[in-house]
Amino acid sequence: MTDDHHSNRTPHEPPKLTRRALAEWARAVTEARWFAVAVLGVILANAALLGAETYDGLAGEWHRGLGLAEHLCVGAFTVEIALRACAHADRPWDFVRDPWNLFDLAVVVCAFLPVVRENATVLRLLRLARVLRTARFLPQLRIIMVAMARSLPGAVSFLLVGALLLYVYAMVGWMFFGRHDPEQYGSIGRAVLTLFLLMTLDGLGEAVHAGLEISRWSVLYYASYVLLASFVLVNVLIGVVISSMEEARELEREHTARRRPAQDAVQDEAEETGSREHDPDHDHELTARIAVARRALDDLEAGLRGTHVGLPRRTEEGRSRRSA
After folding, report:
1. In this structure, is the dihedral angle defined by the CA atoms of residues 80, 85, 90 and 91, taken in order, positive or negative?
2. Are the C-beta atoms of residues 143 and 182 closer than 8 Å to each other?
3. 36: exposed, middle or buried (C-beta count within 10 Å: 0-12, 13-18, 19+)?
């Protein structure tokens, strides 16, 4: 019975390298500090190579070396994305849910497409997109980029209000100063350009002095415009950006909070499994239970054999009594 038990157990033993073990090993590599530093170094080296190719003499003299370095960078990025995919082997959907993983995967896959490799302009733009991957390893930069993306709706509204303000003041300036100052307000286009430059307060003193020679009411015109364009609108834009920064920080906190419980749960499960496998008390208890089960089976087998042997004896005794 013991031999049969071991022979039946061996084919069903799990392989040593399971999907969970692969994910834990890859996750330990990708979450290590040296891995992030190494990938960031490759990204910066790729940016330096891209800048070196803008020099004709250097690109012509070191053409082969620069090409070899580019292939090495592509290979390093491919290994990186493969390790990140292996880190999510036990949870593949988590890899797809992360937008940075999708961005990295798109950048790496596009580098192997024949259409992209044959077009030098698209290939350079793709290599330039790799520089944006530095935001993945710098949390503060990632927050700023997310804040910029989330502030786009507010920035569009700001641009519309600013364009409307410029158009209204440009029309008023053309009506009042167009004949006397045709270089600055001779047309709607010149007036818009002049007011746009005045938004930075550059040349405001000269414009006010030139307006006073035409009319004293020009002071009210320039004062109201500077107050609205240079102070109110700029402060509104700053408020939109600050609000987006707070939202980006909150999203970063939520993302970090979601990742930590999942990692802790996986680690606790792995530690519990390892402790069960290597706990002597657990092994001793399991061995004792197996021994009790074996003794119970042996007793049951002996009882069944005794029953089968006792039945013929009782039958013979009954026959002898009847004959007597």
Report:
1. positive
2. no
3. middle
Q: Cβ atoms within 10 A of the Cβ of 222, count?
A: 19
Residues contacting 209, CB < 8 A, separation 6+: none
> Would you state the structure tokens that stand for residue 176, as one six-digit string?
């009042």
Q: How many residues does the chain have?
A: 324
Average pLDDT (151-155) is 79
How far apart, in whole angstroms, are the C-alpha atoms of residue 192 and residue 168?
9
- Tens digits of per-residue pLDDT, 164-184? 999 999 999 898 888 888 888
> Nearest 5 degrees, angle CA 85-CA 98-CA 137?
85
Do 196 and 166 form a contact (C-beta atoms < 8 A)?
Answer: yes
Residue partners of 309: CB distance under 8 A and separation at least 6: none
The 10s digit of each residue's pLDDT in 86-139 is: 988 888 888 888 887 888 888 888 888 887 776 767 777 777 777 777 777 777
> The tokens of 183 are what?
């270089």
User: Using alpha carbons only, how large is the chain's radius of gyration in Å?
Assistant: 39
Q: What is the DSSP string of 211-277?
A: HHHH-TTHHHHHHHHHIIIIIIHHHHHHHHHHHHHHHHHHHHHHHHHHHHHHHHHHHHHHHHHHHHH
* Count of H-run helices and E-run strands, the chain: 18, 0
pLDDT of residue 318 exceeding 70: no
At 282, is the secondary structure helix, strand, or coil? helix
Separation CA 81–CA 39 (nearest Å)? 11
- Closest among 217, 218, 215 to 194, alpha carbons compared: 218
Among the listed residues 113, 87, 71, 119, the one whose alpha carbon sits nearest the alpha carbon of residue 23:
87
Smallest Cα–Cα separation from 26: which of 77, 75, 90? Answer: 90
